[in-house]
């Protein structure tokens, strides 16, 4: 039986989710703020956290960052904000998916099941003969650790969304991707297009790759079409599990 922790200061939502998720075989715990979340994590073997963005005291973005720094517990973020920037920021802080409020509880169940299935032990384990390192133009992507090594040997950590976006580029270098295609890959599921969101995500990946936004060498903007990863060669397997 899998344990879900719902972190939300709205008592009506937590009560609803505790009852509703329980019908699908989950054991559900509730917390209304950062201290309560930490107490629940200490008391129970939590398999996934449903985390509200707007919380009293420490907000959901800071808690997502805290969770990701100490564990790989999957996070689904809830947000009442319509700003695409907040959604991208949540993914960059380590969230695996997000849902906007108000939401359908049945859709949340489907999202939880998808994330747990995707991150189940062995679900994304590569064959023993497969390398975990991808080399491109002097850079090295360590897939298991999800970080980059610069040509000068500096370690550059990647968020989940940045990692997915880079893998998408590396899997088909020099292909033009539309914003819709990149957003679907970076978020790990089909979604409506938020063009400004993917622009922000590309901008952050450019920063990680030390790519000058005024004259980018690696991630080039193709006017009216999308983006192209202008890499000379890619060595290694770039497969990843969404």
Brief synopsis:
The protein has helices at residues 11-22, 34-43, 60-70, 84-92, 105-118, 160-171, 179-187, 195-208, and strands at residues 3-7, 27-31, 48-52, 75-79, 97-100, 133-136, 139-142, 147-149, 155-157, 176-177, 219-222, 226-229, 234-235.
Task: Describe the model.
The chain is an alpha/beta fold and 242 residues long. It folds into 2 domains: 3-118, Rossmann fold; 133-235, Orthogonal Bundle (Arc Repressor Mutant, subunit A), CATH 1.10.10.10. 38% of the residues lie in helices and 21% in strands. Strand 4, helix 4 (84-92) and strand 5 form a beta-alpha-beta unit. The two termini are 23 Å apart. The model is unreliable at 124-131 and 188-195 (pLDDT under 50).
Topology:
Elements: E1 3-7, H1 11-22, E2 27-31, H2 34-43, E3 48-52, H3 60-70, E4 75-79, H4 84-92, E5 97-100, H5 105-118, E6 133-136, E7 139-142, E8 147-149, E9 155-157, H6 160-171, E10 176-177, H7 179-187, H8 195-208, E11 219-222, E12 226-229, E13 234-235
Helix pairs in contact: 4-8, 6-7, 6-8, 7-8
Low-confidence stretches: 124-131, 188-195
Counted beta strands: 13
CATH architecture classification name of the largest domain: 3-Layer(aba) Sandwich
Helix tally? 8
> What is the radius of gyration?
19 Å
What is the CATH top level name of the largest domain?
Alpha Beta
Quickly count the domains.
2
The CATH homologous superfamily name of the largest domain equals Response regulator
SS content category = alpha/beta
Kindly report the spatial arrangement of strands forming the biggest sheet.
2-1-3-4-5
Round the mean pLDDT to the nearest integer and report it: 82
């Amino acid at each position: 039986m899998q344990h879900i922790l719902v972190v939300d200061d709205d008592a009506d939502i937590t009560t609803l989710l505790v009852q509703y998720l329980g019908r699908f075989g989950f054991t559900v715990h509730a917390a209304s703020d950062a201290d309560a979340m930490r107490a629940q994590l200490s008391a129970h073997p939590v398999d996934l956290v449903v985390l509200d963005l707007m919380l009293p005291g420490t907000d959901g973005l800071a808690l997502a960052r805290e969770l990701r720094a100490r564990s790989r517990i999957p996070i689904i973020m809830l947000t009442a904000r319509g700003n695409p920037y907040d959604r991208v920021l949540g993914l960059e802080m380590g969230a695996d998916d997000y849902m906007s409020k108000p939401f359908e509880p049945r859709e949340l169940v489907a999202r939880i099941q998808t994330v747990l299935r995707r991150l189940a032990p062995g679900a994304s384990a590569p064959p023993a003969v497969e390398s975990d390192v991808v080399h491109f133009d002097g850079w090295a992507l360590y897939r298991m650790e999800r970080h980059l090594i610069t040509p000068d040997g500096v370690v550059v950590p990647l968020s989940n969304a940045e990692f997915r976006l880079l893998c998408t580029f590396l899997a088909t270098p020099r292909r033009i991707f539309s914003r819709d295609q990149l957003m679907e890959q970076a978020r790990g599921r089909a979604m409506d297009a938020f063009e400004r969101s993917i622009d922000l995500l590309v901008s952050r990946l450019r920063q990680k790759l030390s790519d000058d936004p005024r004259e980018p060498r690696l991630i080039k903007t193709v006017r009216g079409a999308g983006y192209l990863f202008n890499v000379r060669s890619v060595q290694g397997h770039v497969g990843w599990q969404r």
